[in-house]
Amino acid sequence: MEKMVLKPADTNEIRLGQFILRDKDLYMIKDSKDGKEEVYLANASKIKSVTRNIETGVITLEIEYYSFDRWETLKISKGKLLPSELSFLLDKGMDIAGYKAKHVFQFLDFHEKSFKPTYVHQKLGWMRFQDEILFRLHEAIQNNKRFSIYEGQYSIQPKGSEKEWKKIIQAEVVGHASLEAIVAASFAAPITAWLNIEQKGDIDTLLWNCVGNSSGGKTTAAMLAVSAFGNPHISTDGLVQSFNGTGNALQAILAGNFGVPIAFDEVSISTFGKQTLTSFIYKLAQNRDKARLNKESKLISTDSWCTVVFFTGEVSILAQTKNNVGLKVRLFEFKNIQWTKDAAHSERIKLGVLNNYGHAGGIFVEHLTQCGIDEIETKWSEFKSVMFEKMPETNYRARISNKFASILTGAYYANEALDLGLSIDRIADFLVKQELDSMTDRELAPKFYKLFRDYIIQFSKHFKINQEHTNETQEIWGKIETKGNKTYCYMFPHIYDKLAKDMGFADPNVLLDGLKANGNLKHDNQKKQIKKAIFTKEETKLREKVLPNKPYSPRGDYSVCIVYDGDILADYHKGSLDNFNPNSTNTRTIKPKNELEAMIEKNKSKGLFDE
């Protein structure tokens, strides 16, 4: 070791215990026959900062050290300062070989204790910390004080100014219902998450899909939506992410997010299969990954989240998933909306939000914390009632009203906090229209299913029934079979289309999607129809009436098969006999027309129901 006489303290040096850090060198103070002396130990290593992660509690040290010819910095957890990690630190260029390691580690331990840790976070949105609620953005906000710095993957450090961002909203958004609605949905993210965390209502992640061609401005709308909270650029660190990834990778983007909106652009490029995409969308809406066990059969902690997720794409997500109602009340699709007026309008919004972002979200959340969760819940409940009254009567009216109410609540508090001038009435009308547009897919299939059962009973003579003899003069539309306590109603596709349309259902194919999703359709694999031999070879004349100019096939013809529980014909006749009273003076009471009878009478003029 190099020895030298102990020097007086220098204002630029650090003295801790038996160590002195001076310039690029670290010395130890040792006893000698002349008193005390400085002994050169190694190139300098010192603590630059100490941070504590508020989510994990992990202490991270930022070490600055001199390596060969320059200063380097390294961030490591405190657990890395162990002999077992020596090779890692040597590879990074720290001068700790051999006997030096013990002493350098000891000096760093002394130096670390002179720092007050700075809090950091890597996730976004609400969390509880030290029994208080806080919101994590580029800084964590608790009791209107900022005390933790964001160190995660997203670029959410504010850029530009809140004033300029607000000018964009007031000049380019206000008065344009679709853009007002998507901005309100963005501000619904912190509200949705806070209500969920406090278990204030049946509310979970809101999924919003912008579907349409490439010139509709849907990507611009998504960028606008997330810009209140961070960088809206489509990139690995922006709040608009590519949908080109595995389910696990996309899920990781949301993990730990409780209140900051995220957008996924171009769902059309997804390589997910139907089952995988269905499971993924369910998982997003339900706020958590599925439970798993490790090798020891112990439950592994799972990722969770609750926020608003926007999607954009040229095709419907629902069309690519297994159609079922559960998805359709979780994912709201806005199809063929002209989000921006023209290319110039879109460009102004894009340019504006790419240069001014990340300010409004923090101001908005501070206002929410001042209002408190109880006041927010009350306002949300008021908007639930408003939306419930406005919404069409469906089985899912209450659930959808819950979700749409969070959007109106977002608009209400955004107006209070930022004076944006969003029209709550205009937004509500836009959301109701979306629900009316989606009803065909979600609600009309069950309605058709019930009506069509009555129709089959009323006009059963137009169907071959099991093995019963059929009159050759009769017009046959299909066949009814009863097997295993089920009734299978087969009909030819063109007959089905005509019946459905004449009954007032505009899109028969959408009805099939609904029937298939609800398990009411018998079909071949990957199809909505099934091959069925309705006619025998001897029934050529009957077949030609309904399928003219089509050669006979022993394998049968493609047909639509709707399935009902029980023997619907036998059950109907049994019910009629059970209600018959032979002693009644009037056994033929006149009943009000039901929906089916009214529909039949209306369509008699078309010849479909003629005797």
TrEMBL record:
Domain of life: Bacteria
InterPro entries: Cch_HTH, DUF927
Residue ranges occupied by any Cch helix turn helix domain in the UniProt entry: 445-541
DUF927 domain span: 27-297
Pfam families: DUF927, HTH_56
UniProt protein name: DUF927 domain-containing protein
Organism: Lysinibacillus louembei
Lineage: Bacteria, Bacillati, Bacillota, Bacilli, Bacillales
